[in-house]
């Protein structure tokens, strides 16, 4: 699903690499936590998977494709098989819940009939059935993140990338979001989640990948957070 | 559905930047109206030049029968064959002359018809009212005076005209105006392009959340850029339509009504509606493509995958 081979990333005008010689593999259907302090390289890792950045050295394979060899015009096709969720939800404030989810399908040219079918389905899945016509501003943070997850999942991606999805939520709400991500993972979708949330990592007991100053320092199945503040 | 989605996005975008859109429309309209005006001015000059303008420098008009009655220069009657022969051989001997062409009354009638075809004056003319003439090309156009002193006042010669002298001042003025129009057009064009680039960037910036999501869910580059390009094209097309309106109105009020130059200067042949109408598709196409291209290049850096 994801394979990093000796990947390093140096941003222009910076001497310290953001990632140093990282090699790892994530299999289909896995649930993986990516942990590490700020500046450890988590964001760079995710940006490389999304091909928002290219590597300085080494290769990144996502869904069996070498991203370095993927030409720019093929990147959109690749991203249609990924779903992305962020800490700040990134919903469109002037669209309703249903429109926000439908947007992800409209802009890749899905038919109206298809959209009408899949949007209520995915809203039910994330537990927002009946709130289709609400505006994001009327929802709680947890509900907004559920909308964002619905939007990321509506095109049935093979890989869901979540960048601190619980970063803005209280612990109880976070547990709800984690249950949802776990449910999505059980449908066969690989989940890669960057997080700072120690409780969540410790409770879920999934694979943990830890980065420190750009280096891969730990890759542990059924791991705990372990990082010292 | 797709079209509806794109169209609503364009509408939202244009309204969001109403002042900028307005500025784009006005600057595109002005620059293209000047562009069209400059093309029409060239057409006007070409229309006025007539058959001989670019071919000769001096014309010697010979007396015809009606001149013999009305014109003091022709008091001795219409030109005779001997006089014509003499003029021709004198011209051939002159060193400054490069080429002499004889224009018969029938030729003159034909050329007149070509230039003033549908004017009321032309329809009342007959060939025998036309003048025969010698059309002379000089090696040095400045040597007009040599011909004038040699033939002015000779029997059978009605007048010697420096063909360019008459029209050159007018053409100089028109040309000057034309260049001024082009210079202003070029400036307005630069302004229009910069406004379009800026409008598109503001538009892209104000919608960066949408475009960011579009990129992440895998919308194609074309799908992301199309609304912005279409926005610029629509604004440009409105400007182009306004420019077309300007030209039609200008033709109407300057030549036919209002200033009504066609009545006041009825010896001048003015451009017709066909000259104006053939420019309109060109202007509309430019107004559509130019902003679209500008938007495309403005976005290339802004909305990379």
UniProtKB/TrEMBL annotation, chain A:
<dbReference type="GO" id="GO:0005886">
    <property type="term" value="C:plasma membrane"/>
</dbReference>
<keyword id="KW-1003">Cell membrane</keyword>
<dbReference type="InterPro" id="IPR003593">
    <property type="entry name" value="AAA+_ATPase"/>
</dbReference>
<keyword id="KW-0067">ATP-binding</keyword>
<dbReference type="GO" id="GO:0005524">
    <property type="term" value="F:ATP binding"/>
</dbReference>
<dbReference type="GO" id="GO:0051301">
    <property type="term" value="P:cell division"/>
</dbReference>
<keyword id="KW-0472">Membrane</keyword>
<dbReference type="InterPro" id="IPR027417">
    <property type="entry name" value="P-loop_NTPase"/>
</dbReference>
<comment type="subunit">
    <text>Homodimer. Forms a membrane-associated complex with FtsX.</text>
</comment>
<dbReference type="InterPro" id="IPR015854">
    <property type="entry name" value="ABC_transpr_LolD-like"/>
</dbReference>
<protein>
    <recommendedName>
        <fullName>Cell division ATP-binding protein FtsE</fullName>
    </recommendedName>
</protein>
<comment type="similarity">
    <text>Belongs to the ABC transporter superfamily.</text>
</comment>
<dbReference type="Pfam" id="PF00005">
    <property type="entry name" value="ABC_tran"/>
</dbReference>
<dbReference type="InterPro" id="IPR017871">
    <property type="entry name" value="ABC_transporter-like_CS"/>
</dbReference>
<keyword id="KW-0131">Cell cycle</keyword>
<keyword id="KW-0547">Nucleotide-binding</keyword>
<dbReference type="GO" id="GO:0016887">
    <property type="term" value="F:ATP hydrolysis activity"/>
</dbReference>
<dbReference type="InterPro" id="IPR003439">
    <property type="entry name" value="ABC_transporter-like_ATP-bd"/>
</dbReference>
<dbReference type="GO" id="GO:0022857">
    <property type="term" value="F:transmembrane transporter activity"/>
</dbReference>
<dbReference type="InterPro" id="IPR005286">
    <property type="entry name" value="Cell_div_FtsE"/>
</dbReference>
<keyword id="KW-0132">Cell division</keyword>
<comment type="function">
    <text>Part of the ABC transporter FtsEX involved in cellular division. Has ATPase activity.</text>
</comment>
């Amino acid at each position: 699903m994801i394979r990093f081979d000796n990947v390093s990333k140096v941003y222009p005008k910076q001497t310290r690499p953001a990632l140093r010689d990282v090699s790892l593999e994530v299999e289909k259907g896995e649930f993986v936590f990516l942990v590490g302090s700020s500046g450890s390289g988590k964001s760079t890792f995710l940006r490389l998977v999304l091909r928002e950045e290219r590597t300085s050295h080494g290769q990144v394979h996502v869904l069996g494709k070498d991203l370095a060899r993927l030409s720019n015009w093929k990147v959109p096709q690749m991203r249609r098989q990924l779903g992305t969720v962020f800490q700040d939800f990134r919903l469109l404030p002037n669209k309703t819940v249903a429109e926000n989810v439908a947007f992800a399908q409209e802009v890749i040219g899905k038919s109206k009939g298809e959209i009408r079918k899949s949007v209520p389905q995915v809203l039910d899945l994330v537990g927002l059935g009946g709130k289709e016509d609400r505006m994001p501003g009327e929802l709680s943070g947890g509900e907004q993140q559920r909308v964002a997850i619905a939007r990321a999942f509506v095109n049935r991606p093979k890989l869901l990338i979540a960048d601190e999805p619980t970063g803005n939520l209280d612990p109880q709400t976070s547990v709800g979001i984690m249950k949802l991500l776990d449910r999505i993972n059980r449908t066969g979708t690989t989940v890669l989640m960057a997080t700072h949330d120690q409780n969540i990592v410790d409770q879920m007991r999934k694979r943990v990948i830890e980065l420190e100053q750009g280096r891969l320092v730990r890759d542990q199945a059924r791991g705990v957070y372990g990082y010292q503040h | 559905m797709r079209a509806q989605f794109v169209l609503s996005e364009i509408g939202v975008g244009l309204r969001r930047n109403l002042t900028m859109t307005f500025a784009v429309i006005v600057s595109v309209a002005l620059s293209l109206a000047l562009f069209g005006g400059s093309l029409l001015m060239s057409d006007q000059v070409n229309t006025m030049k007539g058959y001989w303008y670019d071919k000769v420098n001096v014309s010697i008009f010979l007396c015809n029968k009606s001149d013999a009655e009305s014109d003091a220069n022709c008091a001795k009657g219409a030109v005779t064959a001997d006089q014509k022969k003499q003029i021709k051989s004198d011209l051939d001997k002159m060193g400054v002359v490069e080429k002499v062409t004889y224009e018969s009354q029938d030729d003159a009638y034909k050329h007149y018809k070509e230039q003033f075809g549908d004017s009321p004056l032309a329809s009342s003319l007959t060939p025998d009212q036309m003048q025969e003439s010698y059309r002379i090309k000089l090696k040095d156009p400045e040597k007009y005076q040599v011909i004038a002193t040699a033939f002015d006042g000779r029997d059978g010669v009605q007048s010697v005209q420096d063909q360019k002298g008459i029209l050159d001042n007018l053409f100089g003025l028109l040309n000057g105006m034309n260049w001024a129009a082009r210079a202003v057009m070029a400036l307005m064009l630069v302004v229009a392009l910069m406004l379009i680039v800026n409008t598109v960037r503001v538009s892209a910036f104000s919608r960066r959340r949408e475009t960011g999501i579009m990129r992440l869910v895998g919308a194609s580059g074309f799908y992301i850029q199309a609304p912005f390009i279409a926005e610029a094209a629509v604004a440009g097309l409105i400007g182009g339509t306004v420019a077309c309106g300007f030209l039609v109105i200008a033709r109407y009020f300057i030549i036919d009504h209002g200033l009504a130059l066609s009545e006041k200067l009825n010896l001048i042949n003015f451009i017709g509606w066909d000259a104006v109408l053939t420019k309109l598709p060109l202007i509309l196409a430019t107004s559509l493509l130019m902003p679209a291209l500008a938007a495309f290049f403005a976005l290339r850096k802004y909305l990379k995958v």
